[in-house]
Amino acid sequence: LDDVSANIALIIAFCINEDGTPLFKKEDAEWLGKQPLSIIGSLAKKIATLNGLTMDVQEEAEKNFEKADS
What we know:
Elements: H1 3-14, H2 29-33, H3 37-50, H4 55-69
Helix pairs in contact: 1-3, 1-4
């Protein structure tokens, strides 16, 4: 995954509604990819920080996202 795709994967995986249901679905990846890169990058960075994600964890999430996409 490239950086944008990885950021979108984080957003899809970690953004939830107040009731705990996912805010985004995998099908929203295309729409998210059309949003300003500065917003996508900032949101993904904040998600990683708030969830204590290290680069190792982020890379593992990217691999899982790729497998699910297959």
